[in-house]
Amino acid sequence: MGNSKQIVWKDQVLNIKEICNLEGKVYGTVVGRMNQGWSIEDAICKPNLINFESHGDNKRGSIAPEYRAWIGMKRRCYNKSYDHYQAYGGRGITVCDKWKNSYVAFLNDVGRKPTPKHSIDRIDVDGNYEPKNVRWATQLEQDNNRQNTIFVQFQEKEVSMNLLYKNNKDGNLFVQYQGKEVSLNLLHKQISKNSKDQL
User: Fold this and answer.
1) Hey, how many other C-beta atoms are within 10 angstroms of the C-beta on 6?
2) Nearest 5°: CA angle at 83, between 81 and 87?
3) Which of 93, 100, 149, 188 has its CA 20 to 30 A from that of 54?
4) Is residue 131 classed exposed, middle or buried when 0-12, 13-18 and 19+ CB atoms within 10 A define those classes?
5) pLDDT of 17-52, one tens digit each?
């Protein structure tokens, strides 16, 4: 489902992402519903019909990935013995009260994962886990939404160095970084080496 498809919505011509922003809906949830055959109106307007509070959202004996994401989100924010607590709860990141105490509320707001490759991601990395600040994102999308993401200038646009590097099929590109034209391959290699040296 493409983001660029134009739809008349409330007397405006908008794409799906713009409609989601206007209506305060999670883009991934709406697209997931539409991919399942829902109309745009139903995907935006109908609430999720989840009205159960089962332990682990079990299906055939396995815990649902959304439930694991909910547990993991709370662990990162509140479990001081968790390995990565300092990057989340240690920085003051919290889970909104609505989600902290209710898996059903969390699932109703964010919906099911669009694919197994998606996981929960905060859009503003300094913001909390709350409606309008989370999405289901791929690992590459999350890699480009970190505090330490390096951005370069390419074709007069600011882009993530990692995203450009991973998608580069044209050999060595030259980019602007800190006011200088540099080889993307050499820059990526040097920054990756420096990151490993600091570990």
Assistant:
1) 11
2) 105
3) 93
4) middle
5) 888 877 777 787 788 777 767 778 877 876 654 444
Q: Which residues of 149-161 are buried (b: 16+ CB within 10 A; e: fewer)?
A: eebbebeeeebbb
User: Token pair 């990395």 is at which residue?
Assistant: 125
Closest CA to 92 of 127, 122, 123: 127
* Residue 142 contacts residue 163 (beta carbons within 8 Å): no
* pTM above threshold 0.90: no
Can you tell me whether residue 72 is helix, strand or coil?
helix
DSSP state of 49: -
CA distance linking residue 168 with residue 32, whole number of Å: 28
